[in-house]
Specification:
Layout: H1 11-21, H2 25-41, H3 43-50, E1 51-54, E2 58-64, E3 67-68, E4 77-80, E5 86-92, E6 96-106, E7 112-123, H4 126-131, H5 136-152, H6 157-162, H7 164-179, E8 184-195, H8 198-240, H9 242-257, H10 270-278
Antiparallel strand pairs: 1-4, 2-3, 2-5, 6-7, 7-8
């Protein structure tokens, strides 16, 4: 003969067991039995109200006299309900995406920016999404807007513009933690656009242009310095060999002759000029 052993957890464990089995009470069972008899008596007609079909991507949460009948959702395929006492709610398990409307956010360094994004989520627990929140989709949308403002409020403007991936991961972690009790799994969050005020855009453009001009001047100065060093080395080489200067003259004449000039000036040989320079 089986014996009953008291539970270590006391009344709490008995209450949880009763909730799992969906205890209806005496009155509830009477109503369920009457509904079953009514269904059997009118079987050819009630079959159309008892059998339900849901798709592969859907699950059905069944309520019997206001209580969830099982801890696991039904589906996909065909399932049976009592027409008078049972009702069910369909839950779509596919990934849903929505746009976060542009949010006016004050960053940590007191700059107002307009930021929008996109969130991808899906229902992970159909029963929790029905029993824990009245509208899981709408609640997730509102929470995403609040989370976006909270996360960006702790960032500087430079971080908002350069670390979008880090902001998206932080938002995903916060949203996933908050929506876990609702049976929602946040799969991905992306920052779409960051809009700056017109005055700030002009200031940043002027700053970038000034930085580019400064770099251009530095590069030009370095080029002139390198060119002067090369000319100095060339002059030292030519000074060591007078014939090298004569060859340079011949290269210059060749360059001038290749162009369409009407007048060509021939320099005097260096040995003639050196004779007058010694005198």
């Amino acid at each position: 003969m089986p014996t009953w052993t008291p539970s270590k957890d006391g009344p709490a464990s008995m209450r949880s067991a009763a909730e799992r089995t969906g205890s209806l009470g005496c009155c509830g069972w009477v109503i369920v039995i009457l509904s079953g008899l009514f269904t059997i008596c009118l079987f050819p007609f009630t079959i159309w109200f008892c059998l339900k079909i849901i798709q592969e991507y859907e699950r059905a949460v069944i309520f019997r006299l206001g209580r969830i009948t099982d801890r696991k959702a039904k589906g996909p395929g065909i399932f049976f309900i009592l027409p008078c006492t049972d009702s069910f709610v369909k839950v779509d398990l596919r990934t849903v995406s929505f746009n976060i409307p542009p949010q006016e956010i004050l960053t940590k360094d007191s700059v107002t920016v307009s930021v929008d994004g996109v969130v991808y989520f899906r229902v992970n627990d159909p029963i929790a999404s029905v029993a824990s929140v009245s509208n899981a989709d709408f609640a997730t949308r509102l929470l995403a807007q609040t989370t976006l403002r909270n996360v960006l409020g702790t960032k500087n403007l430079a971080e908002v513009l350069s670390d979008r991936e880090g902001i998206a991961h932080s938002m995903q972690a916060n949203l996933d933690e908050a929506t876990d009790n609702w049976g929602i799994k946040v799969e991905r969050v992306e920052i779409k656009d960051v809009k700056l005020p017109v005055q700030l855009q002009r200031a940043m453009a002027a700053e970038a242009e000034a930085a580019r001009e400064a770099r251009a001047k530095v590069i030009a100065a370095e080029g002139e310095m390198n060119a002067s060093r090369a000319l100095k080395e060339a002059s030292l080489v030519i000074a060591e060999s007078p014939s090298a200067l004569q060859l340079r003259y011949l290269q210059t004449l060749s360059t001038i002759a290749g162009e369409k000039n009407s007048t060509i000036i021939f320099p005097l040989p260096m040995d003639v000029m050196s004779h007058f320079m010694r005198k």
